[in-house]
Amino acid sequence: MLVAAQCGTTQYESVILAGGTAFRRAVRIESLSSIRVIMKKTNLIGLTVEELEAFVIGLGEPKYRAAQIFSWLNKFRVHSFEQMSNLPQAFRDHCAETASIVFPDIVTQQQSKLDATRKFLFKLEDGAHIESVSIPPREDAVDADKRQTLCISTQIGCPLDCQFCATATMGFIRNLTAGEIVGQVLAVQAASEKPVTNIVFMGMGEPMLNYDNVMKAVDVLTAHTGFAISPRRITISTAGYATMIRRMADEDRKVKLALSLHSLRDEVRRELMPITKKFSVNGLLDALEYYTKKTKKSVMLEYILFDGLNNTAADVALLIKAARRMDCRVNVIPFHSIAFTNPHGMSAELRGVKPAEIESFAAKLREAGVPVFVRNSAGVDIDAACGQLAVKNEKQKKKSM
Questions:
Q1: Which residues are CB-contacts of 396 (< 8 A; sequence separation ≥ 6)?
Q2: Which one of 157, 191, 227, 361 is least enclosed by Cβ atoms within 10 Å?
C-alpha cells in the first residue's frame, strides 16, 4: 500500500509493507492538507482456497466465503464479483474495492486451416507477452470429439538455451505467477466451445525452474470444487532437472511427467541442451528410474529427430536400452524449423528428417517392444511452434520503436 500526503508544496510518501512495516520518503511534515491512499488490488485468479481464506478473513468475513469465491472463479469462471450471486451485495462491493479478477488478455488468435490447432498470444498486466496452443486430438483417439489439449507457458522466455527452441532466443525475463498460469486455461476456455480436458506444461519456459508456482497452479486446476481437471490429464515436461524429478516423486505428485530427451549421448545432448552440463544423461535416467519405481507411474521420453545427429542405428540402440530401465513411452517428434529467429551456430545447422525416416525409427523401437507413438505436426500453417508467435511479436515491437 502506498500512502501519499500533500502539505502545501511539500509532499511526502510512506510505503506500508505487509505486517505494518513502513518507511518514509520525506523528512518532515508541517501540516497535513490531504492524504491519498493507493492500494494495488489483489488478483484472485490462481489463489488457493487457503489463500482466499486469508483474504476474506482480512475483510472481516467468515472463512467459508473463500470456498464460494473459489468455485465462482474456477468452476463457473465468472469475470466479475457482481456475478457471484450467493454472496451478500455488501461483500461483493467490498471485494470489488479491494480485489480484481484479471485474466491474461488475448491479443492475437491464429486458427489453422489444416486442422483445429489454435495459437493464442496473451498480454499480461506488465505488458509482457506469452502464448498457449490448443492442440487437436489424433483422429483415431477414442475421445476425439470431446478432447481439447492446451499447451501452456510457465515463464516469459527461458534461460536454458536449447538449440532447437524459438523461446530460447528471447532469453529469460521472469517466472509467471500461478495466476498467470491458471489464467491461460481460463482465458482459452472462455474463448472455446469445447472444454479444456488436457493440459501440457510444454509452452514457453522450463516448469521446474518455476516449480512452486507451477504446482500451485496444478492444485488450483485439479481442485474438485473448481476446474476439476484430473491430474492424469496434466503433463509436466522438463528439459532435465534431475533434482526436481526426484522431488516430484518424493511429493507423490499425481500429474504425469515427460522428459525432453533428444539424445542419449552426453556430447550431443550438451550441444543441443546445455543443461546436460549440470545433469548428465545417466544422472537423468537414474532420476527417472527413481521416479517410476517410487510413483509406479510411467514417464514419457520426448525425442525430436535431427538429421545426422541423433537418428542413427546406434541412437536407436541407446534409446531401447534406456527405455528398458523404466516404465516409459517414447514420443518421436518431427523438428519444426526455427529459421524465423535468424539462428546461428548449431541452431542454424539443425535439420529434420523425412516422414518415412521418422516411421522407420519408430518401427525399430516397436520391434524391440518399446511403446512409441509419433507426434503429428499440428498448426504448420500458423505460428504454432513453441515461442514462435511471441518471438515474432517481440521483433515487430523492436522494429516499431
A1: none
A2: 191
What CA–CA distance (Å, rounded) separates 110 from 119?
5
What is the residue whose three cell numbers read 516448469? 207
- C-alpha 52 chain-centroid distance: 22
End-to-end CA distance of the chain: 33
Q: CA 132 to CA 125: how far, in whole Å? A: 17
**Residue 270 identity:** R
> Active site residue: 53, 61, 95, 131, which one?
131
| Mean pLDDT lowest among 164-173, 242-251, 328-337, 370-379 | 370-379
The pair phi, psi for residue 53, each rounded to 5°, is -60, -45
Listed in sequence order, the DSSP H helices in 223-312 are: 242-250, 266-272, 281-295
Average pLDDT of the segment spanning 346-353: 96
Per the annotation, the verdict on 386 as an active-site residue is: yes
Q: Which of 145, 155, 256 has its CA nearest to residue 199? A: 256
- Residue 95 and residue 99: Cα distance in Å, rounded? 5
- Strand-pairing partners, residue 157, are 172
Our answer to whether residue 180 is catalytic in this structure is no
